[in-house]
Amino acid sequence: MGDVNKVFLMGNLTRDPELRYTPSGTPVCEFGMAVNRRYTTRDGEQREDPCFVDITVWGRRGEVVSEYFSKGKPIFIEGRLNFDQWETPEGRRSKLTVVADDFQFVGGGGGGRGGGGRQSRQGGGGRSQQQKQSRPQREPEPEEPEGDDLSEGFDVSDDEIPF
Q1: Phi, psi (deg, nearest 5) at residue 109
Q2: Per DSSP, which regions of the chain are E strands?
């Protein structure tokens, strides 16, 4: 069986993008992103569970992100998970990040596919009809049970359990 390492995230930047260049001159942009999971409890209370992710964008795409995005702006990221490990005086450290292969502008203004800043060079805002139709749709979040007993509230018969 083959391996798959693909990530799709849509959320808001938690800090301004930081653009740097490697010694060989390759641009690399890093920023934080918050992805919120919204759900309703059984009591009808609306809850939000944020997930904070560090994003790295290489090359021209990183330069475009640095130029057109800032803290609080929405973005759609397509990329892969990356596991970093390093040594410190306190011991071994590790961090799971996302390396973005592509991105899209989300929401009003300055929009279009952000893969290399094509839309911004054309001076056009907004999306084409095809891009609007191909935008991923969020599915409603399932209710999450409260308390420590996760089996409470689930109606599953013994016949439905596959083992």
Answers
A1: 60, 135
A2: 7-13, 18-21, 27-40, 46-58, 74-88, 91-105
Q: Domain residue spans in the chain?
A: 7-144
Residue type present at position 132: K
- pLDDT, tens only, 56-92: 999 999 999 999 999 999 999 999 999 999 999 999 9
Structure confidence at residue 28 (pLDDT)? 96
- CA 27, 71, 75, 46 dihedral sign is positive
Q: What pTM did the predictor assign?
A: 0.63
Looking at the domain that runs over 7-144, which CATH code has it been given?
2.40.50.140
75: nearest Cα among 9, 7, 20: 9
Q: Are strands 18-21 and 27-40 parallel, antiparallel or unpaired?
A: antiparallel
Strand, helix or coil for residue 133: helix
Rounded Cα distance between 99 and 68, Å, is 18
